[in-house]
Write a structure and sequence with these properties.
single chain, mainly alpha, 2 domains, three-stranded antiparallel sheet, 17 helices, 3 strands, 54% helix, globular, Peptidoglycan-bd-like
């Protein structure tokens, strides 16, 4: 029926902040409505949304400040997923709704759920012809009768689609608790692993639309074409943004990357896929074997599924790359960056950035340490704000 709809969001939000993203706020407002609030889903994170956020934070044992960081986002996805599963398992029955129904509370609730499914439903509290058509679309894509009425079968389908979206988003995301667990199981400092994440991808492996974060490297594409006996000189004309001999940052803007990759694939698909870096750790496609995969396609498909898979690929890479694992264990940032990012690492100050993020990390710096919960809660919002500011810069 559709591609990905619910956004993968963990961005920082606070009351009346000019940098709040409307789509971020609308998704949060819809989640809070699903959990029992009755907010206007308007993208304005004002006092009512702040109060609702504080209520949610208090109920879930989070820091109660009305600010929405990664911990609040993750908990909202987790709690919403648990709730919709309960609705499905208990076969909860709700009133049938149809054109001109006047149960405003229930209509706001289902409109909020539909917004999470399609990112377009307007939360009005009115069952009008627009809402009727959205219900018909749900019914047409399922075995429900396309009556436009929200009957028992259609309620079940709405809950099922909501569950699918919540599962996709929640299980895509990597938590600090999982980093702590897997870093220690791999004899690495959790703070050191998180430092690499911060520098390589600003903390997330996906864009909000669910697409994998990538960076296409034109100078690598030049080399990869040579490896498959394709003369890059014959393809430079009209392709100067994707094919060049020497490294340049001229085409690094995030919004350009998939267009550049697709353009390169028209010249040689496999060489193009090997010439991009992927996910939270920005592992290059040509390193697919080192990362534990049989093909670059398998590598990309795995990373697209979740940030947990991206973490495992990273562990494979550092273990299978000479000197890389030991350098990360020893927090020898210059040596690690030279191996991981290449000899030009100083150009982007990769080593200095990793060292700084490591020093500022709230995660344990040594194996066997527990997270300082008080420090973690009180400093996490500041750390998110810093990362978000760096991303925008």
């Amino acid at each position: 029926m559709k591609g990905f709809t619910m956004y993968i969001i963990t961005n920082f939000i606070e009351e009346n902040r000019s940098k709040n993203n409307d789509l971020d706020v609308k998704q949060l407002q819809s989640l809070l409505n699903f959990l029992g609030e009755s907010l206007s889903v308007d993208g304005d994170f004002g006092s009512k949304s702040t109060i609702a956020t504080k209520k949610f934070q208090e109920k879930q044992g989070l820091q109660v400040d009305g600010q929405v960081g990664e911990s609040t986002w993750l908990k909202s996805y987790e709690v919403s997923l648990d709730y919709v599963k309960t609705l499905i398992e208990n076969e909860e029955k709700y009133d049938e709704l149809a054109l001109n129904s006047n149960n405003k509370t229930l209509i706001v609730w289902v409109q909020s759920i539909l917004y999470l499914i399609n990112n377009k439903t307007q939360i009005t509290g009115n069952f009008d012809e627009t809402l009727e058509q959205e219900i018909v679309l749900i019914q047409d894509a399922s075995e429900c009768s396309n009556s436009g009425c929200l009957d028992t079968d259609t309620w079940s389908e709405v809950f099922s689609q909501c569950k699918d979206e919540l599962e996709r988003v929640y299980f895509s995301l990597l938590t600090d608790a999982y980093i702590l667990q897997r870093a220690e199981e791999n004899d690495l400092s959790p703070a050191a692993v998180k430092a690499v994440v911060k520098v390589e991808s600003n903390g997330r492996g996906f864009h909000r639309d669910g697409s994998l974060k990538i960076l296409f490297e034109g100078h690598i594409f030049w080399k990869e074409l040579n490896k498959v006996n394709v003369n890059p000189n014959n393809h430079v004309e009209g392709n100067k943004d994707i094919l060049f001999k020497s490294y340049t940052k001229a085409y690094y803007r995030s919004s350009l990357q998939y267009g550049r990759l697709n353009k390169a694939k028209r010249i040689h698909k496999e060489a193009a896929l090997k010439s991009a870096s992927y996910g939270m750790f920005q592992v290059m496609g040509f390193n697919y074997k080192v990362a534990g995969f049989n093909s670059v396609d398998d590598f990309i498909a795995s990373l697209q599924k979740s940030e947990k898979n991206q973490l495992e690929a990273f562990f494979n890479f550092v273990k299978n790359t000479k000197g890389c694992f030991k350098a990360l264990q020893n927090k020898d940032w210059a040596r690690f960056a030279r191996i991981y990012n290449g000899p030009a690492y100083r150009t982007n100050q990769y080593d200095e950035k990793m060292e700084r993020h490591y020093a500022n990390s709230i995660l344990p710096k040594s194996m066997g340490q527990e997270i300082d919960e008080e420090a973690y809660i009180s400093h996490y919002t500041l750390e998110l704000e810093r990362a978000f500011s760096e991303f925008e810069a």
